[in-house]
Write a structure and sequence with these properties.
THDP-binding; thiamine pyrophosphate; Rossmann fold; alpha/beta; oxidoreductase; Transketolase_C; branched-chain 2-oxo acid dehydrogenase activity; single chain
Length: 801
């Protein structure tokens, strides 16, 4: 045998070994799906969606996936995660059982149902790992197509790293922008607007994104003819295909059961995206879904006999097996042995996962049972306590809920007995130990959280310059971009004209169009750009032109950004700053202040409401020192108002979660924020004319809210409280009131009913009169305070009406 023949022989043997290993992974994944469904149906797991039928194309994708790459996918990609070495059999089942220990379920510590995958971008202290030295998966979310906007940002980060110099720690996040962002989606979910918005944006931006569509012809029970024009997503996207004259996509179609063609397609896509930064769409068709959509139903209800027969024949693993035998990669007996061993391995992994999940809970149950037995032995209510002990002990597979219910019910029985203190202490200790498993990391718990930054006051010279507020924000952005090379801003009209209010005037010319750039009218993917780039170590500022337009992006903010640290138990972060402006506009569509909706939808994101541009600039400076996402709402009518220009631009910092008393008084506490404060100040001056001395507090930050509890100190002095807000009744004002009364216990100091003054329930009518009759005015504030004081002293303040 010649040397060349030996090399060819070895090469074939290596290839054969690789194919056999791929087959093994596919079979293991399938067995996990089959056994996982049974675990749900027997009650050990709550719900399941599995990746059966998609195994072979996911193997091909994994082959093209490199260190530094990112996946942004959906909940059927288990084979891919196994193939890149980021998911074991035991971890698969730990996720299915909802194991709340990150060591066992590294995907989410039981916070998401199985099938939602993530890798760890951060260490246990919240510090970045070297992402270029590992294969990465951004944390999945369930909302269909919700993974798409983030995918755009993950891909754009490579573009930034390739074209922007001077970024700190660059090699931890990118090697010359060679990383590809890989997206996956089911064919039915391509009907979502987020899919089309992202596809269009990626084509415009020309980013290294490879988008895989797993097409099995159905969306749950609904056939593709009801989902997609021509029943074919690649057919209707042909207009995106690049050609000699215009940029666009490379569109590839490949059958989902054809192993060699899939491997070839994915290698080709990887080269195009990685080297040329051209997005690629891979339409993987003729796939199957052997168990139907999920454990909640059977696909036999909506697939006819012909379809089921075809699916059995063209199951991707069956076709791969057939191809391997035909091409002498293996014989039936070899593959049968792999199949049999896979069943054993999956069964053992399942058993190990269940033991690891169930045994600690049983130990916790037994600990409580022993305590209750001791208490029962000394209690006149022994018979009742023993009944609870017996019921808890009889539960074969207890959960923590059942343990704590038993303890709390027994506590009621012995509330007047000596054993009460022992049981009460156990409940408190147990809750303190267990609750964080389900509640931690809504916000950052690292040493870079927002509370780690100390206030730095603006500094002014002897004769401070009076300038428009927009100049303060503009010049502060200039300082930011100079100081932080990884910072960039993008949004509608951000670039060439320097935003609609000139807060970015001249910044694109100075820092280039990769760092200060325009975006199309597509708010959801503007948010997604920011999320993805922040997940890859950049410091993006995503601008949503007006507060009203935030509604286009609220789902992405709520389901993805706000939950990211929580759903990864602190192992991923996206310190994105969202910039917008609002308040005191005119007309139904340009005057919303839906703050109550926003703050309740995006818990996990800080919401900052500065009253002027100096305060806003200080918030940006603070946030860039932290590792948390935030929304900053600038006052639209503040850009042309005069402010003193600080001399320490880029360095002064507004504290987050801290209120500011902007006028002291003794008769009533007035609490507000943003543009409305100017009306409050005007009303307070007029109230002074009749002897009413109001104290005014600027909230500044809605999330977090008054961490030092300064408002209750004011109420303790004035004994009266009015919250003024231009949101609808029961909106942000109700939240603020709840924080002051429930959290700060200010009710103890009140001599009058705490009240709110809000906008009307309807959207404001157009024009200045529409604004006046729809939102709180200075006169409304004056009269509301006057009425409160009338109740206190009717002789001094007789009724106005």
């Amino acid at each position: 045998m010649t040397e060349t023949e030996t090399k060819k022989s070895l090469s074939f043997d290596d290839f054969k070994a690789e194919v056999l290993n791929d087959y093994k992974i596919a079979v293991i994944s399938r067995e996990c799906s089959l056994l996982g469904r049974r675990e749900v149906l027997t009650g050990k797991a709550k719900f399941g969606i599995f990746g059966d039928g998609k195994e072979v194309p996911q193997l091909a994708m994994a082959k093209a996936f490199r260190n530094g790459d990112f996946r942004s996918g959906y909940y059927r990609d288990q084979t891919f995660m196994m193939a890149i070495g980021q998911l074991t059999i035991q971890q698969f089942f730990a996720g299915l059982y909802g194991h709340s220990d990150l060591e066992h379920d590294p995907m989410s510590a039981g916070r998401q149902m199985g099938g939602h995958f993530a890798t760890h971008s951060l260490d246990a202290n919240g510090n970045w790992k070297s992402l270029t030295q590992q294969k990465n998966s951004s944390a999945d979310i369930s909302p269909t197509a919700g993974q798409m906007p983030r995918l755009l940002g993950l891909a754009q980060a490579s573009k930034i790293y390739r074209n922007v110099s001077g970024i700190e720690n660059k090699t931890n996040f990118s090697i010359n922008g060679n990383e590809v962002a890989w997206g996956t989606i089911g064919n039915a979910s391509t009907s979502e607007g987020l899919f089309f918005e992202t596809i269009n944006a990626a084509g415009v931006l020309q980013v290294p994104m490879v988008m895989s569509v797993w097409d099995d012809e159905y969306g749950i029970s609904v056939h593709a003819r009801h989902q997609t024009t021509k029943e074919n997503i690649s057919e209707i996207l042909k207009g995106f295909q690049r050609d000699e004259d215009s940029k666009g996509y490379e569109i590839i179609t490949v059958r989902g059961w054809d192993y060699p063609e899939l491997v070839s397609a994915y290698e080709r896509a990887s080269v195009i995206a990685r080297e040329q930064h051209i997005p690629v769409l891979i339409h993987v068709y003729e796939l199957t879904q052997p168990q139907g959509h999920s454990t909640s139903g059977s696909h036999e209800r909506y697939k006819d006999a012909d379809r089921l027969t075809w699916e059995a024949e063209y199951d991707c693993i069956a076709q791969m097996r057939k191809w391997m035998i035909e091409n002498e990669m293996a014989v039936e007996e070899d593959l049968d042995a792999i199949d049999e061993q896979a069943k054993k391995d999956v069964l053992e992994g399942k058993k190990a996962a269940w033991s690891a999940y169930a045994n600690p809970i049983k130990e916790e149950r037994d600990e409580l049972v022993n305590i209750l037995k001791d208490i029962a032995g000394q209690s006149p209510n022994k018979v009742f306590i023993e009944k609870h002990i017996s019921e808890l002990s009889a539960i074969k597979e207890p959960i923590r809920k059942e343990i704590l219910i038993t303890a709390r019910k027994v506590l009621r029985i012995i509330v007047k007995e000596s054993g009460k203190n022992t049981l009460s202490a156990w409940i408190s200790d147990y809750t303190a130990k267990i609750q964080p498993k389900y509640s931690s990391h809504l916000f950052s718990q690292s040493d870079k959280n927002v509370f780690s930054v100390s206030e730095v006051l603006p500094e002014y010279g002897e004769n401070p310059e009076e300038v428009d507020g927009r100049v303060v924000i503009r010049d502060n952005f200039d300082a930011i971009f100079s100081k932080h090379p990884g910072t960039l801003v993008f949004g509608e009209d951000c670039g060439h004209i320097g935003d609609v209010n000139q807060g970015l005037e001249g910044m694109q010319e100075k820092y280039g169009d990769f760092r200060v750039c325009d975006a199309g009218i597509r708010e959801a993917t503007i948010l997604g750009q920011g999320i993805g780039m922040a997940m890859r170590g950049l410091r993006p500022i995503a601008e949503i032109q007006y507060l009203d337009y935030l509604l286009y992006a609220i789902q992405i903010m709520s389901d993805d950004l706000a939950t990211l640290q929580y759903r990864t138990s602190g192992r991923q972060k996206a310190p994105l700053i969202i910039r917008t402006r609002g308040h005191r506009l005119e007309g139904i569509w340009h005057s919303g202040s839906p703050m109550g909706m926003i703050i309740n939808a995006i818990r996990g994101i800080h919401v900052l409401v500065p009253r002027n541009m100096t305060k806003a600039a200080g918030f940006y400076n603070t946030l860039l020192e932290t590792d948390e996402p935030a929304l900053v709402v600038e006052c639209l009518n503040g850009y042309r108002l005069k402010e003193k220009k600080p001399t320490n631009l880029g360095d002064f910092k507004t504290p987050i979660g801290v209120v500011e008393t902007i006028k002291e008084g003794k008769d009533i506490t007035l609490v507000s924020y943003g543009s409305t404060l100017r009306l409050v100040e005007q009303a307070a001056k007029e109230l002074m004319e009749v002897g009413i001395d109001a104290e005014i507090i600027d909230v500044q930050s809605l999330l977090p809210f008054d961490i030092n509890h300064d408002i209750v100190k004011s109420v303790a002095k004035t004994n009266r409280l009015l919250v003024i807000d231009e949101d609808v009744p029961g909106g942000a004002s109700a939240y603020i009131l709840q924080q002051i009364l429930d959290e700060q216990n200010a009710y103890k100091h009140l001599d009058s009913k705490p009240e709110t003054l809000t906008a009307k329930a309807h959207r404001p009518s157009y024009g200045t009169d529409g604004d006046y009759f729809s939102k709180p005015s200075a006169e409304d504030i004056y009269e509301k305070v006057y009425a409160i004081m009338h109740e206190v002293n009717p002789n001094e303040y007789p009724e106005l009406y």
